[in-house]
Amino acid sequence: MSEDKKKEKILDVKDLDITFKTTAGDVHAIRGVNIDLYQGETVAIVGESGSGKSVTMRAAMGILAKNATVNSGQIIYRYRDNKGGIDYNPDEDKTATWKEADILKMDKKWIRKHINGRRMAMVFQDPMTSLDPTMTIGKQIIEGMIWHYKIDKKDARKRAIELLKEVGIEDAEKRMKQYPHQLSGGMRQRVVIAIALSCNPDLLICDEPTTALDVNIQAKILELIKKVQKERGIAVIYITHDLGVVAKVADYVNVMYAGKIVEVGNINEIFYDPKHPYTWGLLSAMPDLGTDDDRLYTIPGSPPNLLHEKNGDAFAPRNAYALEIDDKLEPPMFKVTDTHFAATWLLDKRAPKVDMPHELKARIERMKKEAQANGSKL
């Protein structure tokens, strides 16, 4: 949804539909998802646990579980070949041409060689499960470089030390010889980021990268990712349930519920002018120090069981503003602006006029004033 025509679209997820076979039956986890991402942008995918955020991005990386069936859709990834090796910069190569691949049509071997780690890299939420406890930090950073680019072990080691310094780890040479359990949680997450950056990817996917960390370390990790993104010009996708994180990092936001994108827009549109009742609920549930109410808002009910799909809008049972049609027909994506769309019947011309809750409107006004005082966009 970028307005910058000079930027190339590098990822285009079109009408993605995925079902998982389980012992209890088929789970329709992803239902017609569309996401696009341009060079250098930060896109957030936000929603409650089980909404399909991680599954969508695992599909983009070609690492879906064996019990997954892709019913339909395309995942087009566009890239320029880094044929000149690990330090090759296609921006400086006038002859470099764009190539594209539908990830869903490529075999696992091709994806592992050309995409995973090399052009798309993922930072997972718990570094202890993504780091090998039996291998030194140094070995885990250099193995991807050697496998993808066949570079000399000595050069790979030198590069690994530089990466550790880049992600803010002091005494990098000493850390190279250590094991994951010898590092703090924040340092382990920095190591995971160093591994993700080791092969110069064009796209970094961050799956709840700060969930297991305390607040101070969270802020440092987010700043680190922003710094690296700016220096390298890479695109970043954040998968998160935390709108506080989204406010700090994102250019565009995709709000996901029950396997569907229900609202998409730029950061100001989602935070200052949300249109979907689910987005209203997520924003209302953020902790707010500016209110006298000591209660924390929660969205009523629970996310639906995707083993048993219901007619109409999946959010209707939890929606205080649901209309009769919500139980019969699924809402289409209604256009609000060129960059802002929402799947709610409340935007239909025939629907009664419903404003967002008064408390949320007051909160948004406080957010605007705070942003203006800080000189930030949000």
Task: Give a quick precis of the structure.
The protein has helices spanning 53-60, 108-114, 127-130, 137-149, 153-166, 172-176, 185-197, 215-232, 243-249, 267-272, 277-284, 358-374; strands at 9-22, 25-38, 42-46, 68-80, 98-102, 120-123, 203-207, 235-240, 252-257, 260-266, 334-335, 341-342. It is an alpha/beta fold and 378 residues long.
Which helices and strands, and how do they pair?
Blueprint: E1 9-22, E2 25-38, E3 42-46, H1 53-60, E4 68-80, E5 98-102, H2 108-114, E6 120-123, H3 127-130, H4 137-149, H5 153-166, H6 172-176, H7 185-197, E7 203-207, H8 215-232, E8 235-240, H9 243-249, E9 252-257, E10 260-266, H10 267-272, H11 277-284, E11 334-335, E12 341-342, H12 358-374
Parallel strand pairs: 3-8, 3-9, 6-7, 7-8
Antiparallel strand pairs: 1-2, 1-4, 4-5, 9-10, 10-12, 11-12
Helix pairs in contact: 4-5, 4-7, 5-7, 7-8
Number of helical segments? 12
Helix percentage range: 25-40%
Strand content: 15-25%
Q: What quaternary form is this?
A: single chain
* Overall pLDDT score: 92
Sheet with most strands: 8 strands, mixed
Query: Helix/strand-derived class?
Result: alpha/beta
Distance between the termini: 19 Å
Strand neighbour order, sheet with most strands: 6-7-8-3-9-10-12-11
What does this entry look like structurally?
The protein is an alpha/beta fold and 378 residues long. Helix content is 32%, strand content 22%. The radius of gyration is 22 Å and the shape is globular. 38% of the residues are buried. Mean pLDDT is 92; it is low at 1-5.
